[in-house]
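TASK: fixed-backbone design
INPUT:
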């Protein structure tokens, strides 16, 4: 399908991302109808310079860094996170089994011997910007950073991927420095400078209590020299972690099972025939209730589902509103990119906004989430108009 006229071609953004595109000066490539501007009430943010209609794509952006969440064990591409799960032993419906993506069969293994998988040579090249120096090499080595993230308390689960994203960004910055491409302060390094700076409140536990510990593990994993350790100072690492925490977006690439399920759904329009297919798939007979079936389907899908997180340079520049005019969606091409879609018509000069929290929450709940996770008191028109007591 052709991209809508307003969207920036994916390849152009990718080239920009690969070159470590920066938001300052001429190297800032942006979708043609969007500009970075100071707003009166919300600081710097994205503003549209031409009308965008509801349903139109504002941009598609590859991640500056992306990784699977710490608890995720599904086989996936280290670069784009797409599922590389082999089909279950006996997929019912042999004809439909052909719809199971065969990516696992052509996946390439990391040449460093760590066992990481890449869905394709381009993904291997893309990931090389960080994996090249993170790769622990052959043999099972204890991944202490991952172990730390896995052990975080449940309430920190949504942000548990942040240290892993910070590791990738630091690795990319360090790789550029080691190659002599850049000699700038750590936070000004290309992969990091493009991320929006947010000031998180001191109450963000992960940031205040663990930053130094995480920094040391990160530097150990990167086999940093004393000079490099000085470059990634405690303060600089904490600021990087803060940026990641404030900007990370959930990624949910489609699982191999999704593709199979879609083929299943598309295989017949007859509801009865379809439900018989589902019965056959689950082998639970027609007496199973709808809820039981959904649970069984989810259990079947679970091992192939990739739960991911990523940070995006342009996406990080969107300001918040509790009545946003844009929405970020996982990319339909199943890789570590996101689309930002306009959800209502916007006029030239209007600020483009997304919601940093679930807009369905009550005013009080939204404001608490925004204060705790993003450190601001929301003063959007909806927050000003609504009443906590309603
Ligand atoms: Zn890939
Ligand atoms: Zn490797
Ligand atoms: Zn608000």
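OUTPUT:
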């Amino acid at each position: 399908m052709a991209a809508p006229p307003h969207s920036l071609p994916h390849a152009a953004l990718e080239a920009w991302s690969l070159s470590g595109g920066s938001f300052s000066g001429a190297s800032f490539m942006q979708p043609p109808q969007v500009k970075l501007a100071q707003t009166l009430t919300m600081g710097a943010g994205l503003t549209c310079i031409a009308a965008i209609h509801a349903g139109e794509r504002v941009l598609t952006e590859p991640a500056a860094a992306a990784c699977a969440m710490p608890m995720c064990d599904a086989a996936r591409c280290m670069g784009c996170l797409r599922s590389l799960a082999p089909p279950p032993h006996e997929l019912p419906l042999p004809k439909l089994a052909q719809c199971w993506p065969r990516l696992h069969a052509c996946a390439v293994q990391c040449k460093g011997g760590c066992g990481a998988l890449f869905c394709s040579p381009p993904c291997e090249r893309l990931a090389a910007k960080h994996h090249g120096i993170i790769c622990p090499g052959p043999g099972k080595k204890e991944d202490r950073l991952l172990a730390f993230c896995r052990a975080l308390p449940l309430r920190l689960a949504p942000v548990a991927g942040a240290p892993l994203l910070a590791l990738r960004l630091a690795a990319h910055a360090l790789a550029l420095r080691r190659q002599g491409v850049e000699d700038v302060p750590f936070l000004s390094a290309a992969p990091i400078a493009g991320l929006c700076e947010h000031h998180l409140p001191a109450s963000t536990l992960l940031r205040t209590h663990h930053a130094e510990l995480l920094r040391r593990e990160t530097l150990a994993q990167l086999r940093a020299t004393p000079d490099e350790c000085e470059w990634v100072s405690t303060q600089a690492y904490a600021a990087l972690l803060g940026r990641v925490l404030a900007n990370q977006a959930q990624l949910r690439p489609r699982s191999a099972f999704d593709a199979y399920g879609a083929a299943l759904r598309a295989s017949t329009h007859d509801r009865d025939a379809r439900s018989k297919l589902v019965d056959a798939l689950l082998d639970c007979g027609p007496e199973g209730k709808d809820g039981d079936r959904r649970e069984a389907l989810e259990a079947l899908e679970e091992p192939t589902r990739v739960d991911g997180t990523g940070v995006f340079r342009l996406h990080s520049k969107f300001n918040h509103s509790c009545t946003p005019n844009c929405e970020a969606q996982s990319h339909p091409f199943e890789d570590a990119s996101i689309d930002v879609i306009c959800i209502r018509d916007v006029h030239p000069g209007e600020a483009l906004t997304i919601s940093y929290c679930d807009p369905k929450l009550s005013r009080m709940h939204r404001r608490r989430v925004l204060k705790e996770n993003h450190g601001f008191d929301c003063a959007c028109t909806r927050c000003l108009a609504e009443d906590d007591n309603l």
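COMMENT: Residues 10-63+312-356 form a domain with the Beta-clip-like fold (CATH 2.170.270.10).
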